[in-house]
Amino acid sequence: MVVLILSGLAIGAVETTLRSSTKVGRARRIVEWILYIAIAILLVVVLLLYAVHQARTGGSSKLPLKWLGFAATSAVVFGYAVKAGWRTRMGPKFWLLLGAFFVVHTGVGLVVLMRVEAVPLLLYALWGWPEYLFLMNCLDFFLRSDPRYR
After folding, report:
1. Are residues 105 and 74 in contact, defined by beta-carbon separation less than 8 angstroms?
2. Which contiguous run of DSSP H or E holds residue 130?
3. Alpha-carbon distance 30 to 67, whole Å?
């Protein structure tokens, strides 16, 4: 899970680094970085507290980790895609493309996850990067003519 969180932070770093370097932009990037770090620390602390609680009570976790990992990866991939294409959010083409990719992503994910017993969380982080890059390339290819995109 820590790798997944760090992966999300790295995608955020790429997104914020690509923005303009004006003083306002620089201040905004600093605030965004502080928020990213605070959220990551909060998530790690919550997970550690949960792990300590499970160890003290001797309870076994009944959490469906493969589904939670898939949901977290989906949130990171599509969250950053929406953030990157925020200027085109009013155009139906953006949402149609994003929705089609989400249907394919969910369909493939459901088929794969129903066939396996468990999935290492590291695989979610490793798979999220290429999926995000593929999604962004598809959006770039199809929305290239839209002046609001970019």
Report:
1. yes
2. helix 121-143
3. 33
Do the Cβ atoms of 76 and 7 come closer than 8 Å?
Answer: yes
Q: How far apart are CA 88 and CA 95, in angstroms?
A: 9
Using left for φ > 0, alpha for ψ between -120 and 50, and beta otherwise, residue 58 falls in left
Q: How far is CA 140 from CA 9, 27, 77, in A?
A: 22, 27, 15
Contacts of residue 129, Cβ cutoff 8 Å, sequence gap at least 6 = 7, 11
Quote the CA–CA distance of 86 and 74 in Å, as a whole number: 18
Q: d(Cα 9, Cα 111) in Å, to the nearest integer?
A: 28
- Give tens-digit pLDDT for 72-98: 899 989 988 888 877 766 778 888 989
Of 33, 34, 47, which is closest to residue 3 (Cα–Cα)? 47
Structure-derived torsion over alpha carbons of residues 79, 131, 102, 143, reported in degrees to the nearest 10: 80
Rounded to two decimals, the pTM is 0.61
